[in-house]
């Protein structure tokens, strides 16, 4: 039987959740025995080459590129999991939600105290740059999400146990210490 | 400003308990309660500014910035919507050159929306500087705004007076009574003082027994037996208070407006009788600010009663002292809830209290108090006059006597009807000459939306209970958008917010209805709405939260097909709107809002 | 003198002084009923509704219900636990609770209830309403995004003349917690500390004080909220 295929991505996140995945230490050897990785920063596969069983996504959606990747994942993964606070509720990037995106951009590029010289008051507007959305969206507000793994980052043990449970079909009993929102 | 405010504060005895009156006087005098005013009031009363502000910001007729010299509060409730408020609002905006929520730069006009002002039988209606303007249309609005520009007084802008006491020199209101069917209790023959004379010839206990024997139940909507309430209160020790709930805020009800206009002495008489029965010294009638236009008139009625020795010191020479003061509200639906009303009358935020203790134990100023509806007091007068037995012969077994119905909406004869309990909805629709009725909203937004298949149900506490609001909804109305959404917006605005489930669920559920209207909802959303509504009902502290999901629950139950036409039968659907999500940032940086895949 | 009465919670019999609040008596008997707004011996607010129980088959808040003889109380039933979970979720979507950036994280009662009920994602949509921060007071930082309107500060933090430092402003969806600028200018160190302590979330913070307890040693890192009460269960 072929191994289940896993894909991962980081959208408006900090890669902390991916770091936490690496934090499973030597169990990573067991993990690659259990699953095969496809599109993921871990193996640097940039585009889906196969239909995947599990997609793990950290980060929320803050721009059109995130949106594109998220939809791509939904189309290519049987099970899609929101990993970490940003994916689940926008996380720290979502602290800008409620503030108008214009105000955010102006603060970042024109008015902020740390802004260098910008006499022409230019804000990045090249067509190649993804467009920033009005707020940072939790993933489940855009596509159907099957499971959620909270934490900032989710504890390595939580990620490990959840993935193992999913591929083995074993019941997942999460100990109290593993569900954390920070 | 300082001297004036200090004198206002002194008028009300310089006590925080009268903060409402102080704030109302300041608002009326200066068209706002400014930060300076708050600061002054706080220091004069010896409370913190935060404390003054917490009362001030609870009520929507208090403003921090001045309202216009002419402030227009246009009713945007569901029935007003049916009667064409959108056009009226549009004309106001055009003529005044401002939007609702704004004040004209010259300070002349400000436009505001306000929930039901008790004029559902003559909508669209507005309060302009607290005077009522009814049956508005584009033409009338043009004339009103032109009059404003000519500097006319609002009083002189009322050119025709309504019937009955509406034409009284102290009322001079264009309001119509629209009494379509007087009955034998509240709107029947009435002679001032007869009830008091009878009551005071009886032992207080016997008065309570008489009311108990009538099985009169509270007319505000909750239906608690009035006599029992009086008895519980009489059993408590301490100074007792008699409060009258004239905060008729349930959208669609206006019968108390008519009683206060045509039967004001009777309302007070009921309070005096209760005062005698409970050996109380003081009565307070809590009058919603929407009925501010009646204040001088009502005060004159009180003076009249004092002159007749039916109120004040040594009533009828029997050593009984009892007086009544009028407490104005300032715009908050929740104050119709009796414990919120008490809080408000004490000068605080109108947040409902936790029970126990009940108001009969600890009410106004933590003293034993009864709070009864205007109509309940009127009924009590007749019960004392004619006996509980006489009263019980009317109505049904469980709902005795008569009920005033405020009927409005899509019918030929909107108005006030005094009918015996037990009438069916069908009979009622015939009575008001309603045709092609889609639904009847019984008891206002917090009540039930009744479909034609249930029109044989009875208007009675044991079947379809109502505080009086009956809204007829015609066939061509968009029930979900015009009615349910409007009601949910109302609850969202009127939740006091102090208990989580009511505050939060009203926001959540209003958004869900909006999603249905926008075509963004999916089938499972309907069951979620029902389930969430149930949680709100079970966990909210007061009647507002416990009933606020009713517009949704009763329409999903009774009109499910209307919802199903609007929701998609898919497992998942996103509300995400790409165009909207990128519009602002593209505009800000100056790039075309195109996304290429 | 006080009268003792017997009553049951989830089928088990307990005894307590008649008229005392159910939530307190339960706690003394080792039965945890979750609370957010309640504070022992302070006039109950009954505002958070998380202590909703069923008393003789009626929904009541345990923090406002005095105990009486023959009361049958339901507490840890699936239905009530789901209501409580819904309330926690509701608070998470209504305010802006960014746990990873919150000073109170690990010691926060709301978060701890999220852990207790294993909230993976709220069932309700996030509101993301903008709320203001108030840093004008020299000692207190008021983070309105995190306020859950429990009224503890309003009820408990007063000056020697009985004036409130904290108060609500607005109503319904516009409700916000405010601090009286003039009074707060002179708030004592003790009261400022107390205000932070009683706040169940991270809405009231003593300025110039940072994280002091390492992650792993905070109040709710290893044990669920209510464990201190449940150990008393006989």
Descriptive keywords:
heterotrimer, A: five-stranded parallel beta sheet, two-stranded antiparallel sheet, 32% helix, elongated, C: 234 residues, alpha+beta, Ubiquitin-like (UB roll), 2 domains, five-stranded mixed beta sheet, globular
Query: What is the mean predicted local confidence, pLDDT of chain A?
Result: 95
**Name of the level-1 CATH class of the largest domain in chain B:** Alpha Beta
Estimate nothing, just give the exact number of structural domains of chain B. 5
CATH architecture of the largest domain in chain B: 3-Layer(aba) Sandwich
Category by helix and strand content of chain A:
alpha/beta
Q: And the CATH topology of chain A?
A: Rossmann fold
Question: In CATH, what is the homologous superfamily of chain A?
Answer: NADH:ubiquinone oxidoreductase-like, 20kDa subunit
- What does the overall shape of chain B look like? globular
**How many distinct helices of chain A?**
6
Order of helices and strands of chain A: EHHEEEHEHHEEH
Greatest interface: B-C, 41 and 47 residues
Low-confidence stretches of chain A: none
CATH topology of the largest domain in chain B: Rossmann fold
Biggest sheet overview of chain B: 6 strands, mixed
Shape of chain A: elongated
Under the CATH scheme, the architecture of chain A is: 3-Layer(aba) Sandwich
Number of domains of chain A: 1
The percentage of residues in β strands of chain B lies in: 5-15%
Q: What does it look like?
A:
The complex is a heterotrimer of chains A (182), B (597) and C (234). With 182 residues, chain A is an alpha/beta fold. Chain A has a single domain (5-95, 135-178), classed as NADH:ubiquinone oxidoreductase-like, 20kDa subunit (Rossmann fold, 3-Layer(aba) Sandwich). Helix content of chain A is 32%, strand content 19%. Chain A has six helices and seven strands, in the order E-H-H-E-E-E-H-E-H-H-E-E-H. Chain A has helices spanning 16-22, 27-34, 64-76, 84-89, 101-111, 156-168, and strands at residues 5-10, 36-37, 52-58, 61-63, 77-83, 132-137, 147-149. In chain A, the strands form two sheets. Chain A has a five-stranded parallel beta sheet, with helices on both faces. A two-stranded antiparallel sheet of chain A has the order 4-6. Chain B has 597 residues and is an alpha/beta fold. Chain B has five domains: 2-56, no CATH class; 70-159, 3-Layer(aba) Sandwich (Glutaredoxin), CATH 3.40.30.10; 181-392, Rossmann fold (3-Layer(aba) Sandwich), CATH 3.40.50; 402-472, Ubiquitin-like (UB roll) (Roll); 480-564, NADH-ubiquinone oxidoreductase 51kDa subunit, iron-sulphur binding domain (de novo design (two linked rop proteins), Up-down Bundle). Chain B is 42% helix and 13% strand. Chain B has 25 helices and 15 strands. In chain B, the strands form three sheets. Chain B has a six-stranded mixed beta sheet with strand order 5-12-11-15-13-14. Chain B has a five-stranded mixed beta sheet with strand order 8-9-7-6-10, with helices on both faces. Chain B has a four-stranded mixed beta sheet with strand order 2-1-3-4, covered by helices on one side. Chain C has 234 residues and is of the alpha+beta class. Chain C folds into two domains: 4-76, Ubiquitin-like (UB roll); 85-206, no CATH class. Chain C is 24% helix and 17% strand. A five-stranded mixed beta sheet of chain C has the order 2-1-5-3-4, with helices on one face. In chain C, strands 6-7-10 form a three-stranded antiparallel beta sheet. In chain C, helix 2 packs across helix 3 (109-116). The chains are: A alpha/beta (182), B alpha/beta (597), C alpha+beta (234).
């Amino acid at each position: 039987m072929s191994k289940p295929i896993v894909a991962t991505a980081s959208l408006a996140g900090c890669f902390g959740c991916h770091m936490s995945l690496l934090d499973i230490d030597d169990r990573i050897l067991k993990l690659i025995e259990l699953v095969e990785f496809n599109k993921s920063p871990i193996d640097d596969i940039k585009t889906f080459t196969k239909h995947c069983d599990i997609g793990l996504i950290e980060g929320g959606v803050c721009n059109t590129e995130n949106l594109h990747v998220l939809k791509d994942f939904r189309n290519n993964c049987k099970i899609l999991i929101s990993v970490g606070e940003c994916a689940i509720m926008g996380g720290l990037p979502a602290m800008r939600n409620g503030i108008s995106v214009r105000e955010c951009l102006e603060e970042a590029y024109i008015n902020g105290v740390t802004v260098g010289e910008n006499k022409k008051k230019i804000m990045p507007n090249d067509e190649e740059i993804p467009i920033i959305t009005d707020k940072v969206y939790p993933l489940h507000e855009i596509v159907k999400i099957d499971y959620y793994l909270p934490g900032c980052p989710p504890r390595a043990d939580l990620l490990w146990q959840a993935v193992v449970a999913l591929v083995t079909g074993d019941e997942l009993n999460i100990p109290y210490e593993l569900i954390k929102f920070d | 400003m300082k001297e004036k405010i200090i004198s206002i504060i002194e008028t009300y005895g310089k006590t925080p308990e009268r903060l409402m009156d102080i704030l109302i006087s300041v608002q009326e005098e200066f068209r706002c309660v400014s930060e300076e005013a708050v600061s002054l009031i706080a220091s004069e009363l010896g409370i913190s500014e935060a404390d003054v502000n917490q009362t001030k910001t609870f009520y929507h007729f208090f403003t921090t910035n001045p309202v216009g010299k002419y402030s227009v509060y246009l009713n945007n409730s569901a029935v007003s919507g049916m009667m064409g408020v959108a056009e009226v609002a549009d004309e106001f905006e055009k003529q005044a050159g401002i939007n609702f929520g704004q004040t004209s730069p010259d300070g002349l006009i400000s436009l505001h929306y306000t929930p039901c002002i008790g004029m559902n039988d003559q909508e669209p209606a507005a309060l302009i500087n607290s005077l009522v303007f009814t049956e508005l249309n584009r033409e009338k609005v043009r004339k009103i705004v032109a009059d404003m520009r000519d500097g006319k007084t609002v009083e002189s802008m009322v050119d025709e007076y309504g019937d009955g006491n509406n034409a009284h020199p102290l009322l001079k209101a264009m309001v119509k009574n629209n009494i379509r069917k007087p009955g034998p209790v509240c709107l029947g023959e009435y002679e001032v003082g007869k009830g008091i004379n009878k009551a005071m010839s009886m032992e207080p206990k016997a008065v309570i027994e008489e009311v108990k024997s009538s099985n009169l139940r509270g007319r505000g909507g909750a239906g608690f037996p009035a006599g029992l309430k009086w008895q519980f209160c009489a059993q408590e020790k301490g100074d007792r208070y008699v409060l009258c709930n004239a905060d008729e805020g349930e959208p669609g009800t206006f019968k108390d407006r008519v009683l206060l206009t045509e039967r004001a002495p009777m309302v007070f008489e009921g309070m005096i009788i209760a005062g005698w029965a409970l050996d109380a010294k003081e009565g307070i009638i809590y009058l919603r600010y929407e009925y501010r236009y009646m204040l001088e008139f009502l005060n004159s009625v009180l003076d009249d009663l004092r002159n007749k020795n039916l109120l004040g010191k040594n009533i009828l020479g029997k050593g009984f002292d009892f007086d009544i003061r009028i407490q104005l509200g300032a715009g908050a639906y929740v104050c119709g809830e009796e414990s919120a009303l008490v809080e408000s009358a004490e000068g605080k935020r109108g947040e409902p209290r936790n029970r126990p203790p009940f108001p009969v134990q600890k009410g106004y100023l933590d003293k034993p108090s009864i709070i009864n509806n205007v109509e309940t007091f009127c009924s009590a007068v007749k019960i004392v006059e004619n006996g509980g037995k006489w009263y019980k012969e009317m109505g049904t077994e469980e709902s005795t006597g008569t009920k005033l119905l405020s009927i409005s909406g899509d019918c030929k004869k909107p108005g006030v009807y005094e009918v015996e309990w037990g009438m069916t909805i069908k009979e009622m629709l015939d009575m008001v000459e309603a045709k092609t009725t889609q639904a009847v909203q019984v008891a206002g937004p917090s009540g039930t939306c009744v479909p034609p298949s249930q029109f044989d149900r009875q208007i009675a506490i044991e079947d379809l209970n109502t505080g009086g609001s009956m809204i007829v909804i015609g066939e061509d109305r968009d029930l979900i958008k015009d009615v349910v959404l409007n009601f949910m917006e109302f609850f969202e605005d009127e939740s006091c917010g102090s208990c989580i489930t009511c505050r939060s669920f009203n926001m959540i559920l209003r958004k869900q209805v909006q999603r249905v209207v926008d075509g963004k909802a999916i089938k499972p959303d309907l069951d979620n709405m029902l389930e969430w509504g149930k949680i709100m009902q079970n966990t909210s502290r007061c009647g507002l939260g416990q009933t606020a999901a009713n517009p949704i629950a009763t329409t999903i139950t009774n009109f499910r097909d209307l919802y199903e036409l609007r929701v998609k039968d898919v497992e998942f659907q996103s509300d995400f709107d790409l165009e909207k999500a990128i519009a602002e940032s593209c505009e800000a940086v100056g790039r075309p809002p195109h996304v290429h895949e | 003198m006080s009268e003792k009465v017997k009553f049951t919670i989830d089928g088990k019999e307990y005894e307590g002084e008649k008229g005392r609040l159910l939530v307190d008596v339960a706690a003394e008997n080792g039965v945890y009923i979750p609370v957010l707004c309640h504070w022992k011996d302070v006039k109950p607010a009954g505002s958070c509704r998380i202590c909703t129980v069923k008393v003789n088959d009626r929904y009541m808040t345990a923090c406002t219900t005095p105990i009486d003889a023959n009361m049958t109380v339901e507490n840890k039933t699936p239905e009530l636990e789901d209501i409580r979970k819904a309330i926690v979720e509701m608070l998470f979507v209504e305010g802006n609770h960014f746990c990873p950036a919150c000073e109170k994280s690990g010691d926060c009662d709301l978060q701890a209830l999220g852990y207790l009920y294993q909230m993976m994602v709220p069932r309700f949509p996030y509101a993301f309403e903008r709320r203001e921060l108030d840093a004008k007071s020299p000692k207190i930082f008021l983070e309105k995004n995190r306020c859950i309107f429990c009224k503890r500060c309003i009820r408990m933090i007063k000056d020697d003349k009985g004036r409130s430092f904290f108060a609500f402003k607005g109503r319904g969806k516009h409700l916000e917690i405010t601090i009286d600028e003039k009074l707060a200018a002179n708030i004592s160190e003790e009261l400022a500390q107390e205000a932070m302590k009683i706040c169940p979330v991270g809405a009231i913070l003593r300025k110039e004080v940072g994280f002091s307890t390492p992650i792993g040693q905070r109040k709710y890192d290893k044990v669920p909220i209510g464990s201190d009460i449940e150990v008393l269960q006989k």
